[in-house]
Each structure stands twice: as structure tokens, then as C-alpha cells.
């Protein structure tokens, strides 16, 4: 279940994103930028994914120009493959739909295994900006 993250959760969430994205960043010649993460945190809607009383993931939504973007969706390594990312994604879509918005957008590395997850949940490719692709899910 998603719950609003507090300021004290920022370091934990940042470490999760940094660790989960380390291989992709290395592959694409990028460096982790803690200042960028802090700025994104400050400008976004931050949620923890909780299961069995503990934090097992992190999700951030960003609203820009009247649209909502899924900026981060991370699950701790030992809890992947259990449907937690799917649950978080469906809850994020419900949040955005509840605001009356018609779509949720995101960017993801084109070579990320997450692309399959997003496609299974109705996201289609809108643009290709290597190494990223932009995707959108229309919300009924």
C-alpha cells in the first residue's frame, strides 16, 4: 500500500533509487546526483510502498504543465517479483485518475526490464530519446 512519505524518508528513498539504478546509470555513462534527487523530491509527490509493516518501495509522481508523470518506481531487491510494483503502479494510476487526469506519463531506459511491466499495464511508447523512451497510459 502506498503512503505519503515524510522528509525523514528521503535518505532511505534516495539510497534505494541510487542502488537500484546503479547498473543502468553505469551502462549509460550517467552519475548519481544527490542534489538532483533532493530537488526532484522537493518538487514531487513522494510515496513509500509498505508491506508487512515495513517500507519495501518508493514511488514519486510529478505534476508538470497539467500532466502527471511517474518519475520513480523502485522496489527493494529482495521483494521484486511479488507483484508489489504492479500494486504501486495501479495505485498511482488511481491517484492520477482521481484528480480527473486522462493519462499518466513516464520515461524509462529503453533497455530496462521495467518496460515490460509498463506495457502490460497499458503504457504505449510516445517518443524515443535514447537511451530513454517516453510512455503514456490513458486512464479511463
UniProtKB/TrEMBL annotation:
UniProt keywords, alphabetically: Transferase
A Pfam entry, by short name: Acetyltransf_7
Record protein name field: GNAT family N-acetyltransferase
InterPro entries: Acyl_CoA_acyltransferase, GNAT_dom
CDD domains: NAT_SF (cd04301)
Residue ranges annotated for the N-acetyltransferase domain, each copy included: 1-140
Molecular function GO labels: acyltransferase activity, transferring groups other than amino-acyl groups
Superkingdom assignment: Bacteria
UniProt organism field: Halomonas nitroreducens
